[in-house]
């Protein structure tokens, strides 16, 4: 019943979790049945308890009514007897005088012997003071002291009934020495109360039994006084006729309360000592509270038979100790000076505590309140939130520094580092992963899988956000160059360096070096937390790791792609608009672009991660092809039959293919050339007879399923013989075609 509720949103986070619905439904049905059973059992017990209470109240009412009727009968008989006896008033007066005389005689004798009896008590107390471990005269002292206290109370009551208040101060002075003796006796009673556990442990059972007899006698006296006070308050007229039965104590002396307070005093200094040890070293909580269970075990095994059964001393003692334990733990939890380490130790304590208490014979539901008020979930959430707060603060500081470095990149080195392989790297990536490991260690210190899992979830989220933030930062800066918002290109080379460094960073996060036996950051992170979480969580974590890995690959590819796009936007800005226009025929634009690209490859080959070099070349080749084919939209682009556009296209392709053939990796060159084969159907669209255009388009479309009709229209418009009927035929053919969708081709990038 104390298990915190689990939200369905936490159980069904992924589409695959839908397969668990049947099992979850069965599990919730089972839990519901268990809860219903407990509720029925609890309701039945409450009904039985309520019925028993109502029966008790009914019986009590009947008894009170019977007593009332009997008292009325006695009063009636008394009244009738007074009328039946001749001279009853005179006889009653003489009887009262005789009783008063006896009472005065008794009081006189008690007052005359009072000091001698008090001296005897003082002597016994002196002897006990020399033997505090045994106190052989304890019962005798209590008996005599009780007699003297009753004498004092009776005398003071008689004086208070009189008309001369001055006599009260005289009696108070006379009894002052008694008060001093009582104070010493009370101190010894409190001393014994505070030492009960130690007395049982050293087997000084005699003193414990005598102490219990005294407390029991005082408890009965207090109950009698309270009952009499209640009777005098509720039935004054009848009670005044029975004042003769009020001999003995006149006030509540509270020795039972002193006893219960003594139990608290036994534990209080021990709790204070335990708190000091715990605050110095959170790991010793169980050790420093060992005395707690030893005390209770001592009471269970050695004290129960020494105390009256009606006290239920073990139950009483346990209730007092349990409340002190509750206050001890809650006070530490609420203390602003308490560290998270202390809080986590306390979170794990209730489970151990209730196991130990169960061994002593107490179930968890019998111990009220809960030892930390069922705050485990709250404390775990707070601790987890604290780690995540530190995590966010670190990530924010790191990202702020990265932004600062990026903005100030126009310095030598571009505010970048190089790794042991000479690859460009950002300065803060190592700090980021080190910080993640440290926060993971902090979560692991909790020894709770739910804490670690919550922190790891937050780390997954922050790492995804970091990928997005980096892409946005670079994209925003690149957009300034793409939209001609930057006049000075001083920061452009550094931007290219940062794109390369960022791409390298992503690969460093996922590239495990098997030859050197070194794990990448992400794999090392997974290895570190995998032993700290549950197998069920690990299944879900695998999906998160895979998503992060894909994200690193995507961001790395995006950086290289953006690099290539910026080269065309900035370096080839003045060249690209001339393609397929009259200027194109006399220019060597393709040769100059390929030469520029060769320079880029040569410059960045040593600082770009080796696994990205071929990708860099492929992306640039694809971007060149996309830009080349998209040039049909250039202003003034036109292919006339009299122009040597075929030869010029062949010349451009030859220049590009010569570069592709010179690549160190022939597989890359062959793959690029295969992609560039798309120029063949492009050239056919330009050169075939007008009547064959629809068939050429269909062949093109079947080979490249994602061929865009808008681009085909732009190509056809560059033909000298373009007409609306030609475009209409192509569109009708496109509408009638059914092509099989496959993987994206290069034509999917050309709009």
From TrEMBL:
Q: Which InterPro entries match?
A: EXOC3/Sec6 (IPR010326), EXOC3/Sec6_C (IPR042532)
TM annotation in the entry: none
Any Pfam family: Sec6
What do the Gene Ontology cellular component annotations say?
exocyst
Q: Is Transport a UniProt keyword of this protein?
A: yes
The reply on keyword Cell cycle is no
- What are the alphabetically sorted keywords of the record? Exocytosis, Transport
Q: Name one GO biological process term.
A: exocyst localization
Q: Name one GO molecular function term.
A: SNARE binding
Q: Which family does it belong to?
A: Belongs to the SEC6 family.
Question: What name appears for this protein in its UniProt entry?
Answer: Exocyst complex component Sec6-domain-containing protein
């Amino acid at each position: 019943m104390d298990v915190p509720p689990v939200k369905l949103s936490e159980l069904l986070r992924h589409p695959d979790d839908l397969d668990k619905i049947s099992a979850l439904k069965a599990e919730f049905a089972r839990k519901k049945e268990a809860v219903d059973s407990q509720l029925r059992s609890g309701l039945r017990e409450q009904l039985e308890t309520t019925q028993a209470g109502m029966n008790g109240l009914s019986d009590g009412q009947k008894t009170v009514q019977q007593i009332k009727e009997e008292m009325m009968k006695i009063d009636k008989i008394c009244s009738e007897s007074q009328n039946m006896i001749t001279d009853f008033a005179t006889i009653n007066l003489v009887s009262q005088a005789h009783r008063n005389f006896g009472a005065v005689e008794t009081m006189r004798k008690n007052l005359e012997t009072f000091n001698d009896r008090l001296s005897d008590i003082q002597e016994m107390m002196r002897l006990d003071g020399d033997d505090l471990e045994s106190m052989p005269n304890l019962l005798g002292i209590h008996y005599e002291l009780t007699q003297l206290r009753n004498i004092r109370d009776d005398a003071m009551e008689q004086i208070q009934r009189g008309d001369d208040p001055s006599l009260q101060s005289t009696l108070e002075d006379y009894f002052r020495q008694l008060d001093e003796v009582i104070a010493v006796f009370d101190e010894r009673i409190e001393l014994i109360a505070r030492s009960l556990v130690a007395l049982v442990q050293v087997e000084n059972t005699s003193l414990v039994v005598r102490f219990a007899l005294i407390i029991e006698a005082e408890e009965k006296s207090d109950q009698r006084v309270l009952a009499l006070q209640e009777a005098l308050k509720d039935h004054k007229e009848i009670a005044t006729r029975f004042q003769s039965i009020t001999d003995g104590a006149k006030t509540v002396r509270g020795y039972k309360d002193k006893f219960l307070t003594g139990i608290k005093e036994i534990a209080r200094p021990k709790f204070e000592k335990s708190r000091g040890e715990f605050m110095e070293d959170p790991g010793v909580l169980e050790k420093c509270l060992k005395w707690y269970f030893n005390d209770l075990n001592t009471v269970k095994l050695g004290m129960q038979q020494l105390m009256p059964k009606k006290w239920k001393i073990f139950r009483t003692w346990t209730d007092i100790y349990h409340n002190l334990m509750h206050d001890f733990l809650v006070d530490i939890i609420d203390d602003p000076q308490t560290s998270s380490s202390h809080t986590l130790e306390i979170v794990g304590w209730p489970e151990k505590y209730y196991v130990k208490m169960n061994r002593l014979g107490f179930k968890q539901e019998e111990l009220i309140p809960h030892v930390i008020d069922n705050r485990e979930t709250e404390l775990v959430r707070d601790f987890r939130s604290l780690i995540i707060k530190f995590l966010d603060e670190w990530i924010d500081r790191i990202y702020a520094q990265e932004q600062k470095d990026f903005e100030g990149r126009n310095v030598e080195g571009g505010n970048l580092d190089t790794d042991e392989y000479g690859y460009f790297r950002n300065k803060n990536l190592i700090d980021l992963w080190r910080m993640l490991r440290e926060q993971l260690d902090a979560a692991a210190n909790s020894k709770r899988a739910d804490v670690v899992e919550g922190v790891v979830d937050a780390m997954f989220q922050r790492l995804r956000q970091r990928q997005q933030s980096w892409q946005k930062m670079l994209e925003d800066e690149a957009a300034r160059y793409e939209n001609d918002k930057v006049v000075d290109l001083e920061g452009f080379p550094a931007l290219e360096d940062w794109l390369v460094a960022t791409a390298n960073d992503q690969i460093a996060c996922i590239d495990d070096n098997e030859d050197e036996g070194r794990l990448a950051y992400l794999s090392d992170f997974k290895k570190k937390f995998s032993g700290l979480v549950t197998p069920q969580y690990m299944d879900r974590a695998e999906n998160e790791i895979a998503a992060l890995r894909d994200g690193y690959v995507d961001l790395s590819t995006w950086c290289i792609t953006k690099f290539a796009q910026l080269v065309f936007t900035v370096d080839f800005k003045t060249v690209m608009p001339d393609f397929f226009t009259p200027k194109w025929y006399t220019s060597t634009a393709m040769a100059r672009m390929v030469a520029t690209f060769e320079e880029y490859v040569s410059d960045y080959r040593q600082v770009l991660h080796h696994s990205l070099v071929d990708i860099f070349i492929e992306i640039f080749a694809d971007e060149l092809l996309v830009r080349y084919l998209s040039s049909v939209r250039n202003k003034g682009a036109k292919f006339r039959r009299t122009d040597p556009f075929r030869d010029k296209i062949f010349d451009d392709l030859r220049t590009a293919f010569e570069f592709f053939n010179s690549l160190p990796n022939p597989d890359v060159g062959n793959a690029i050339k295969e992609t560039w084969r798309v120029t063949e159907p492009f050239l056919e669209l330009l050169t075939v007879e007008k009547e064959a255009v629809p068939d050429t388009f269909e062949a093109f479309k079947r080979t490249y399923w994602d061929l865009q009709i808008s681009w085909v229209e732009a190509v056809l418009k560059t033909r000298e013989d373009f007409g609306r009927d030609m475009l209409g035929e192509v569109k009708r053919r496109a509408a009638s075609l059914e092509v099989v969708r496959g993987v994206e081709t290069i034509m999917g990038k050309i709009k």
